[in-house]
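subagent[fold] <- orchestrator: predict structure for attached chain, return tokens only, no commentary.
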Amino acid sequence: MNKLFGLVCCLTASTAFAQADDKQPQLIKKSTIHASITLGYGGIENPVLDADDITSPILPSFAYYGDNWYFDDFSIGYSLIETESFYVDLLGRFNDDGFFFELDGIDKLYAVGVIRSNSGRPTIPTASPINLTPIKRDLSYMAGLSSALNVYDNIWLSAAYVHDVTAVHNGYEILLNGYQAFELLSGVAGVEMGLTYKNEELIDYYYTVAPTESKTRVFDYDLQSAINYYVKISYEYPINDSLSLDFKLKHTWLDSNLANSTMIHKNGYFSGFTGITYHF
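subagent[fold] -> orchestrator:
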């Protein structure tokens, strides 16, 4: 259940601030609950060294848009300004970095596999006993402002600023993206590109290894703020009024400074889901 919760949050978190296609009046009927469940396969690659990927054969979704308040999976918002081509919202959403640590048992993993010496092997000291602290990072919830503008023919540009309101790391993120939806083969396709700026406090909290978490010497590594980039494609083909074929695939490129840190083992990761969706 925890992995399913994380999968839903992670697959929606990066674009929850800019659901431009969903906020169009012709696609979302206000004051109506929109629920669906997708059966298929999908998940998220975990870029943290020795951590498990998050996968699931099921992906639920639940949304409600009122006159001002809305709830979209685990994101909540309040519309301050809304027209057919522009909106400004108050927004709350989970930070996705925390899921890499919370949902695969890495809280029980000691850093013997996370820290590597220059030779590629951990050097275990001879002193005994060795008392280590498990690697554990908490989830954080972010809140702030988001805005989007329809610049031309279903092309939306969006921006958001969200800050940690749970006192986990007191960091913030700035999110920018562009999105376009268009008809393709009797279905609706979408292309999205964007970036996420994560400040130094957020990066330091999640990706710095403390000396008590490692059996080896922790080499000084200057972790700074990071800018991650992503591209996402999606496609929905309606089968009937209740069923559709859905495909979503996203690739995120990690900031080079972050990707070279001792806790990360790849410079990017994939996330996505494909299957048959039943709309309630």
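orchestrator: received. Logging for downstream: Confidence is low (pLDDT under 50) at residues 14-26, 105-131. Residues 2-279 form a domain with the Porin fold (CATH 2.40.160.40).
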